[in-house]
Amino acid sequence: MSLIETIKNIPKAELHLHIEGSLTPELMWQLSEKHSIALPYNSVEEIADAYNFSNLQSFLDLYYAGAGVLIDEDDFYQLMWAYLSRCSDENIVHTEIMFDPQTHTERGVGFDVFMSGFLRAIEDAEREYCISSYLIMSFLRHLPESDAFETLAQAQPYAEKIHAIGLDSSELGHPPSKFQRVFRKVKEQGFKIVAHAGEEGPASYIWEAINLLGVDRIDHGVRCQEDPALMTYLKEKQIPLTVCPLSNLKLCVIDDMKQHNILSLLEEGLLVTVNSDDPTYFGGFLNDNFIALSHSLDMNKEHVKALAMNSFKASFLPQSKKQEYC
Ligand code: ADE
Ligand code: ZN
Fold it and tell me: Among 71, 133, 173, 256, which residue carries the largest CB count within 10 Å?
């Protein structure tokens, strides 16, 4: 079996995927017509052509605007169903999906609307494709901590359906310490915790996410290599990093995929995983991320197997389920 076939066939988990970042230009166009929402584009092709980013903020501006076409329960169903259908095509058997409530509640679209659509699609995918899905609710870090407290309160009726709480959006200038108090409450309520750190931000943000928020995983974390003591800590504690290669390239965290450090982190013994982040904006779903690595790095089947196994080890699945794959 070729390396590409191994990548496509091996069962995998995806742990870092923003559902709003899986909105295709086609669905964005279709929903804009359905709801008579004016987009600053004249065609599906123009939407796709606009996806050239210079940094995280230049992407986030388009990503939040794009999410504005999601209005009713069926829109959120279609969004989730499209992603989970893609998972089925890619042999992704388990996925932990982030969603940003504040992107919707601030437009007057409530938890009842998006949660109903998400959960209906997740149940259908479990039945039709045997894919298991967990939801990760993420706070937007460019907003004040008080908004995060309010979002946590609004989420209470859905607490049983949410496995973890995360932190995303503009990293620089919004360190994890800004959200210490709300994550204390999150921990008291028994949720798992993840946070984006060390994507654009420095290694010190990764330390803050660990020491001040008590994270179970770090999203991205690729800048950990700037701090040898942090590398040692991540290795010893086996704190997972959910790395997103095409995202790093598209957002200019690296200039060339040949510079990506994921395989050197893997070889150093860190628990790294491959993920797609915002696949329709960054030019590829999960298998495309593996394939892009295989084209630019000296990647072999053992690397692919180790990365796939790590995706289950780093997941929030119960130990008995993890053992089926590891
Ligand atoms: N929200 C969606 N994608 C993100 C990313 N790559 N970093 C921070 N926030 C995000
Ligand atoms: Zn992300």
Answer: 133
